[in-house]
Amino acid sequence: MDVVLEKLSFLEGPRWRSGRVWVSDFYTHRVLSAAEDGSDLRVEAAVPAQPSGTGVLPDGRMLIVSMRDHKILRREDDGTLVTHADLSGLARGVLNDMAVDPQGRCWVGCFGFDLMGGAPLATAPLIRVDPDGSAEVVANDLHFPNGAVCDGHTLVVAESFGDRMSAFTVQPDGSLSARRDWARFGDPPTSTDLAEVLPTLSVVPDGIAEPDAEGAIWVADADHHRAVRVREGGEILDEVAVPEGQTYAVALGGADGRTLFLAVAPSFLEHERAHTRDAVLLSTRVEVPLR
């Protein structure tokens, strides 16, 4: 493992684009980018309501999840931030990660309940935001929809507390159909007590990478000190152990597409992370490159 970035609060949503790795740092309220080795660190955006997932529109402008005010922000060419969409009437709990597809549609998850406040587990909706900023709920009853990828035809979303990754077929009008298990690691929870549920989960899929050249997806397993490479159907093909800390998000990229970036922190709890600076972005080399 190489240390790419260090002394940060809690990292989420790493992405590889334009020859740089981009990542959100929750509690410093910044979106950062750096060269593959961590040099040339830049602050790309300041998001007071806490940034999470990011993505890029077909014209190159960046979209950023602003978690606490339920907005999708758009970074204009001059660096200013404007509201792309307001999801206040659709989201349950704070917004989470997202994917942006080649058509410029966003697929956005939310917590569904007050995770940091210790509320009972509850399912959450998945929201589609169209390029003009209009939005609607396109799926319900997901167990903490988190990392997502979408090629415009198939959407795959990690359900962190559901022990699975779900897939949907994307219809031409943006509606979703044919919901199915892309990878089922175990049975969805029956309890609403997170302390009871977590020990029963085989995989806690958090952030996920774009598919590699063989169609497999690297997945951050947020409760088992690792990232796993998963084939459709649920077979785990490879594993990267992270003994110190938990892995909350991953991205596949680098100059040759064989660098796996891992967002790592000691825990996810806000009261432990907000005022500490021990989160890191690590990298390691993998055999199968980005598609």
UniProtKB/TrEMBL annotation:
Q: Which residues form the SMP-30/Gluconolactonase/LRE-like region domain?
A: 12-264
Entry keyword Lipid metabolism: no
Tell whether Hydrolase is among the UniProt keywords. yes
Pfam families named among the record's database cross-references: SGL
Q: Which InterPro entries match?
A: 6-blade_b-propeller_TolB-like, SGL, SMP-30/CGR1_Lactonase
Which keywords belong to this entry?
A: Hydrolase
Q: Which family does it belong to?
A: Belongs to the SMP-30/CGR1 family.
Q: What protein does this entry describe?
A: SMP-30/gluconolactonase/LRE family protein
* Organism this protein belongs to: Pseudonocardia xishanensis
Q: What is the lineage of its organism?
A: Bacteria, Bacillati, Actinomycetota, Actinomycetes, Pseudonocardiales
